[in-house]
Automatic annotation (TrEMBL):
<dbReference type="GO" id="GO:0005524">
    <property type="term" value="F:ATP binding"/>
</dbReference>
<keyword id="KW-0813">Transport</keyword>
<dbReference type="Pfam" id="PF00005">
    <property type="entry name" value="ABC_tran"/>
</dbReference>
<comment type="similarity">
    <text>Belongs to the ABC transporter superfamily.</text>
</comment>
<dbReference type="InterPro" id="IPR003593">
    <property type="entry name" value="AAA+_ATPase"/>
</dbReference>
<keyword id="KW-0029">Amino-acid transport</keyword>
<protein>
    <submittedName>
        <fullName>ABC transporter ATP-binding protein</fullName>
    </submittedName>
</protein>
<keyword id="KW-0547">Nucleotide-binding</keyword>
<dbReference type="InterPro" id="IPR052156">
    <property type="entry name" value="BCAA_Transport_ATP-bd_LivF"/>
</dbReference>
<keyword id="KW-0067">ATP-binding</keyword>
<dbReference type="InterPro" id="IPR027417">
    <property type="entry name" value="P-loop_NTPase"/>
</dbReference>
<dbReference type="InterPro" id="IPR003439">
    <property type="entry name" value="ABC_transporter-like_ATP-bd"/>
</dbReference>
<feature type="domain" description="ABC transporter">
    <location>
        <begin position="7"/>
        <end position="247"/>
    </location>
</feature>
Length: 248
């Protein structure tokens, strides 16, 4: 059954500072409640595609010069990041970006600015996040900067959920983390997807990992889509790494 298209990116071209072509021609779709992986070697353009979708491109002096981006059929290209957040798109950037001097709980509360929930509703949402990530409950009064890399990644995802997103753009969630922690995080992503119907676009260099959790995937090569298809089909291709991912 067709689950309906949530996001449609058509033929975008993205340029940094008016000169550096980072994304030449990328088209992709994400269905409602779908987990999609965006793969590619270092510098292939994954982060830039995410920034184009979330509206954060302009913060890096990047501009979408060509193409369309539609959410639920509506044109969203050029909207500011806060407007996009209000429409349900949240971007968890590479490197996690938590506020190091705020506690874990205070960091989570910054995610609530958007919908200003009642005290009771806010408590329910925090309890949800703590149920998904019990480590965050244990460390709720600890300064975020003093928690582990895995805990900071969980915090960044938990905080994103307080904005009640329809689509989470996750940039390199596995980066620098131990395999066991990475698995824990990916299992939570699948659980959030099932329980909340949240769609995910996962930008990852770790192809095997994301293909194990995503339904479909796109492989970028120097700013273009080189391959796309069901995750299981791509996982079965033994030339994927050699040709596109530059890692063996
Ligand atoms: P990585 O995993 O290393 O982030 P990526 O696939 O996400 O790789 P991008 O970060 O989107 O790739 O980079 C795509 C291209 O854009 C690269 O050539 C990169 O050098 C360039 N680029 C990225 N950010 C900037 C920036 N702020 N200013 C200028 N060029 C940039």
């Amino acid at each position: 059954a067709d689950q309906g298209t949530l996001l449609e990116v058509s033929n975008i071209e993205v340029v940094y500072g008016g000169a550096i072509l980072a994304v030449a021609d990328v088209s992709l779709t994400i269905g409602n409640g779908e987990i999609v992986a965006l793969l590619g070697a270092n510098g292939a353009g994954k982060s830039t595609v995410l920034k184009a979708i979330s509206g954060l491109a302009s913060a890096d002096r990047a501009k979408v010069r060509r193409g369309h981006i539609r959410l639920g059929g509506e044109d969203i290209l050029g909207l500011a990041a806060n407007k996009l957040a209000a429409r349900g798109i949240v971007h968890v950037m590479e490197g996690r970006h938590v506020f190091p001097h705020l506690t874990v709980k205070e960091n989570l509360l910054t995610g609530a600015f958007l919908h200003r929930p009642s005290r009771k509703e806010l408590k329910r949402q925090l309890d949800d996040v703590y149920a998904w990530f019990p480590r965050l409950r244990d460390k709720q009064s600890t300064q975020a900067g003093l928690t582990s890399g895995g805990e900071q990644q969980m915090l960044a995802i938990g905080r994103a959920f307080l904005t009640q997103p329809r689509l989470v753009l996750l940039d390199e969630p596995s980066m620098g983390l131990a395999p066991r922690i990475v698995q824990e995080i990916f299992e939570i992503i699948v659980r959030l997807n099932r329980e909340k119907g949240t769609a995910f676009l996962l930008a990852e260099q770790n192809a095997a990992l994301s293909l194990a959790y995503a339904r479909r995937a796109y492989v970028l090569d120097t700013g273009r889509v080189a391959l796309e298809g069901p995750a299981a089909d791509l996982a079965a291709r033994d030339d994927l790494h050699r040709i596109y991912l530059g890692d063996g």
